[in-house]
Amino acid sequence: MSKDLFDLYGKVALITGSARGIGFVLAGGLAKAGATVILNDIDPAALDAGVGKLRSEDLNAHGVSFDVTKTDAVNAGIADAESRFGQIDILVNNAGIQRRYPLEDFPDAEWQAVLDIDLTAPFVVSRAVVKGMIARKAGKIINICSLQSTVTRPTIAAYTAAKGGLALLTKSMAVEWAKHNIQTNGIGPGYFKTEMTERLWKDVDFDAWLCGRVPAARWGDPQELVGTAVFLASAASSYVNGQVIYVEGGLLASM
Ligand SMILES: NC(=O)c1ccc[n+]([C@@H]2O[C@H](COP(=O)([O-])OP(=O)(O)OC[C@H]3O[C@@H](n4cnc5c(N)ncnc54)[C@H](O)[C@@H]3O)[C@@H](O)[C@H]2O)c1
Questions:
Q1: CATH number, domain at 90?
Q2: Average pLDDT of span 36-51
């Protein structure tokens, strides 16, 4: 199989929420596969630092700061990116948050914040980006879903509802936009060490539970998501549509 199938040279990728964590690692991975990458984050200082880190590795990285939950800011940010870089060929909807409360005490505002960022924002950002993809008859959308798109644990009902919804939104995007040669798929990470999961990996009991539960017997390294992202961003996945690929050390396969 030719390695050109996975080549992203000449492609422009936008990754939301990518100043740090999984989004930052995916941005670096797509850039190393040849793409020009546009990092986005709500935190402009962290965004500048992230762009600077990738540039120091001679990668073609740029930053566009906006809040993915603000429709006007999203539309302006996408228009700005398209005017500076010509087009967006690959969109990674990665920005996300987690909030933990017992379900019977989940505050309205926290519930809504999770739904806004983890479910509604991928729709709002995709709606802005897909117009150019439809006009060019080509595009790749990757929604960062979660293990919690299909299973859950106590206290994370809002996140589970949002990520479950995102897995089905992925199917809707695939079904509506396939005729324009746009492939939309999801990646469902298991447990990866980032700021979002810091409380969990610093908790010795949770760490022991997880390592006993995951067949791989360890946490994931965000770099282990890059191969799936490059596959879903490249010509190698031209007939893969509406799927969520779980990257979780075998957790879902085990009793
Ligand atoms: N870490 C894990 O184990 C794990 C597992 C499954 C899924 N995920 C998903 O992966 C994605 C990235 O998670 P992470 O662990 O890297 O999180 P993180 O908290 O380390 O990084 C998230 C980034 O998103 C940015 N962000 C937050 N709200 C934003 C907004 N409104 N607009 C723009 N940017 C915003 C933050 O500033 C931050 O840089 C999320 O969608 C998360 O749900 C993570």
A1: 3.40.50.720
A2: 98
